[in-house]
Amino acid sequence: MKLLYSIHKYDVSLFIWLINTRIHGSLTQCGRYLSKTGDGPLYGLIIAGLYGNQGFSPYLQAILLAFLIERIIYFVLKNSLKRNRPEAALKNFHSIITPSDQFSFPSGHTSAAFMMATLLSFYFPSLFIPLYCWATLVGCSRVVLGVHFPTDILVGSILGIGTAIFSLGQL
């Protein structure tokens, strides 16, 4: 428990430092846009495009399996660990946006973004760098907007990459 407390204390300190940097204000508008790209409709369009192009291919099956596994793990972790979001955990702090649920750990936006970046990089290797840059920016936007701590993003990225690799192994 002492280790978890130390990690949480460091996480809160890093979060407060990031929120108080000079450029934070100018990043919020960009953060809103980037966060919205991870909301979900984009994934539906990608899946529909792949289905229209290839039908129900093994690759599309891997994407659907990854989403199924990732969403279950995400839901169980979020609702069993029940880590408060920054607005609930920190006095006198208000996030830029209203999150869609109560708890913060792990970041679902980040998890889904890294999962899709990993899956799409497998199919389109030339897009590896842009896809991982996008996923990283989605995760960072969630901290900029004040709805996640940095470790929520770190664990979300690990969850997303892990479920993608597992589902690709099932091809």
Number of helices: 8
Pick out the low-confidence regions: none
Which range does the strand content fall in? under 5%
Main CATH class: Mainly Alpha
CATH architecture label name: Up-down Bundle
Helix content: over 70%
How many structural units, i.e. domains? Answer: 1
Going by helix content, strand content and strand pairing, the class is mainly alpha
Indicate the mean pLDDT.
86
Q: Span between N and C termini?
A: 40 Å
Helix-strand topology string: HHHHHHHH
Q: What's the CATH topology name?
A: Vanadium-containing Chloroperoxidase, domain 1
Tally the beta strands: 0
Gyration radius over CA:
17 Å
Largest sheet: none
Name of the CATH superfamily: Phosphatidic acid phosphatase type 2/haloperoxidase
Q: What general outline do the C-alpha atoms trace?
A: globular
